[in-house]
Amino acid sequence: MNSEVTQASNFVQGVDTAFIIILAICFIFLIGLTAVMLYFIYKYNKKKNPKPTQIEGSTKLEIIWTIIPFLLTMLMFYYGWAGWKPMHKPPKDAMEVTVYGRMWNFSFEYDNGRRSDTLFLPKDKPVKLNLVAMDVLHSLYIPAFRVKQDMVPGKKDNFMWFEPQKEGTYELFCAEYCGLQHSYMYTYVEVMKDSAFQAWIADTTSVAASVAAVESPAATGKRIMQNIGCFACHTIDGTRLVGPSFKGIWGETQTVVTGRDKREVTVDEEYIKRSIFDPNADIADGYQKGLMLTYEGQLSDDDVNNIIEYLKTLK
């Protein structure tokens, strides 16, 4: 096993120790019980023991096979508990990052307001991830760090913490089946030196300016839609998915259900903004209500305008 992966966080040793001990005990029982079973089959078969004999109970034997499994169970419990307990006591000075999970992507928000679709972290600094599920159950899992925590909609104080201890790139994905595109709900953790992280986290305005300088509004809109997971539910080639396709939608007349009434609307700026910030107000005819949640507070007016410019290009 790669030592850099096994020591990727402060919880690796505790989890691996519990796993190895439990696995070893399971193998001991598997091999021991199989050996005893084969021995009994050989010793007490019909040829060697043609006349059955009554075996009396043994209190001593019953005590032994009760106490030994109990002690082994307590041993497994101890190491499991010892590995689990510190996961629920984050240091007070831990850096906090808010993780938003929705069908079907993760996004990460830092204290200074910067957002990314990759989790950037400093090495050797405790990190507390505040987990927010926007729609259904998700589960944030970082295998190399040996941490996994369910993301429950509406649950308060839903978090996980750890301390990255190796620089590198690690997988992060959803471990709770959450719908059609569940298997595509993954991203990466980038662990870097603290100096490099501080430079990255502080570089919000210059990065935004440089991106704006090289990208057209339409290209910016496409990038925003990729980052917030729009293409997990909507296609750009006209095929049907969870939501209507974006292909040729701009300027067209759509049949929508508003409350209990069907009506015709034109796909314009007002309709797009309402669909983003109040997605259940007008439901495209033939699609299910409640699958999309609002992006209120997550997208600015400029973001929405860039999205609109991109939709205009999808003829």
UniProtKB/TrEMBL annotation:
Main location: membrane
Entry EC number(s): 7.1.1.9
Recorded catalytic activity of this chain's protein: 4 Fe(II)-[cytochrome c] + O2 + 8 H(+)(in) = 4 Fe(III)-[cytochrome c] + 2 H2O + 4 H(+)(out)
Cytochrome oxidase subunit II copper A binding domain span: 92-203
Cofactor requirement: Cu cation
GO molecular function, one term: cytochrome-c oxidase activity
Similarity remark: Belongs to the cytochrome c oxidase subunit 2 family.
Function: Subunits I and II form the functional core of the enzyme complex. Electrons originating in cytochrome c are transferred via heme a and Cu(A) to the binuclear center formed by heme a3 and Cu(B).
Protein name: Cytochrome c oxidase subunit 2
